[in-house]
Amino acid sequence: MNYPITPAIRILREKKIEFEPHIFEYVEKGGTKHSSEVLNAREHAVIKTLIFETNEKKPLIVLMHGNLQVSTKELARTLNVKSVAPVSPEKAQKLTGYLVGGTSPFSTKTEMPIYVEKTIFDLEKIYINGGKRGFLIEIEPNALSNVLKIETIVVGIKS
Q1: Rounded CA gap, 90 and 68, in Å?
Q2: Are 113 and 60 in contact (CB under 8 A)?
Q3: In the beta sheet, which residues pair with residue 72?
Q4: 16: helix, strand or coil
Q5: How many domains does the chain have?
Q6: Residue 27's domain is classified under what CATH number?
Q7: Burial of 62 (0-12, 13-18, 19+ CB in 10 A)
Q8: How would you classify the pairing of strands 84-86 and 46-54?
Q9: Strand segments (E) across the chain
Q10: Among 31, 49, 107, 145, whose Cα sits 20 to 30 Å from the Cα of 99?
């Protein structure tokens, strides 16, 4: 199968992480609901890469189940900061080097702390962005800690 060779894919290959590429038609504002339907996967297994920043303008990444949202109050409490908010799509692109909708946690332009919702590791396989819109890769959740410096958190709430 032909798939894009993004910075994310290069690092996975370099670290010898096995993954299965999935290419599908990107739908603007389709989100994880669209991805899960196209891939015939549970939305809970489709992982969002979200870019936030603290009140001190320090950027960070949160990896969250597709069917859950991040409690910014809980996240701020966990990080021991006043507040946390999502960054603008423009800022997210500048920080990561990826277009919104194609943001991968692998090989971001700016190094940022990466927080992963703890229950992601309960899954057998996850679908996470490969660095391009309409391109998810299927990997074992433990592969995240083989490539990224991560910290587990519990900040997910039902959408």
Answers
A1: 23
A2: yes
A3: none
A4: coil
A5: 1
A6: 3.90.960.10
A7: buried
A8: antiparallel
A9: 20-23, 46-54, 59-65, 68-70, 84-86, 114-117, 126-132, 135-139, 150-153, 156-158
A10: 145
Residue 130 lies in a domain: yes
Question: C-alpha angle with apex 36: 117 to 85, nearest 5 degrees?
Answer: 40
Give the closest residue to 128 by CA, choosing from 65, 75, 67: 65
Q: Is residue 60 part of a domain?
A: yes
In the chain, what's the furthest Cα-to-Cα distance? 46
* Rounded Cα gap, residues 159 and 149, in angstroms: 27
61 neighbors 92 (Cβ within 8 angstroms): no
Among residues 43, 48, 98, the alpha carbon closest in space to that of 70 is found at: 48
CB atoms within 10 A of CB 154: 11
CA 75/CA 78 separation, integer angstroms: 5
Owning domain of residue 67:
7-158
Per-residue pLDDT tens digits for 63-101: 999 999 999 999 999 999 999 999 999 999 999 999 999
Whether residue 18 is contained in a domain is answered as: yes
Is 1 domain-assigned? no
